[in-house]
């Protein structure tokens, strides 16, 4: 897998799309690397391009991700519902 890592990109250099809840970055093939915020919160750090085999390693700290309060209301409501459902 390491041979397909195209580059390491700081999360600050990526674009965040709050509607899709993904970070993206231009790929040399003309498409874009994508990684979901949920994946980042789960510790994933590899963004993939859906059009080619390239991947990038996303350099970030969990504290740099948008807070739940900063996400669209639907996401915050869904997350709150999941937390409430998990409580005994």
TrEMBL record:
Necessary cofactors: Fe(2+)
InterPro entries in the record: DPH3/4-like, DPH_MB_dom, DPH_MB_sf
Keywords: Iron, Metal-binding
Residue ranges occupied by any DPH-type MB domain in the UniProt entry: 5-61
Family: Belongs to the DPH3 family.
Classification via PANTHER family: DIPHTHAMIDE BIOSYNTHESIS PROTEIN 3, DPH3 HOMOLOG-RELATED
Name of the molecule in the record: Diphthamide biosynthesis protein 3
Organism field: Calycina marina
């Amino acid at each position: 897998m390491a041979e397909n890592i195209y580059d390491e990109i700081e999360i600050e250099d990526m674009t965040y799309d709050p509607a899709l809840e993904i970070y993206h970055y231009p790929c040399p093939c003309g498409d874009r690397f994508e990684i979901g915020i949920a994946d980042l919160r789960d510790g994933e750090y590899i963004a993939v391009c859906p059009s080619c085999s390239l991947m990038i390693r996303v350099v970030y700290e969990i504290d740099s991700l948008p807070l739940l309060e900063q996400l669209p209301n639907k996401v915050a409501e869904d997350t709150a519902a999941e937390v409430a459902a998990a409580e005994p």
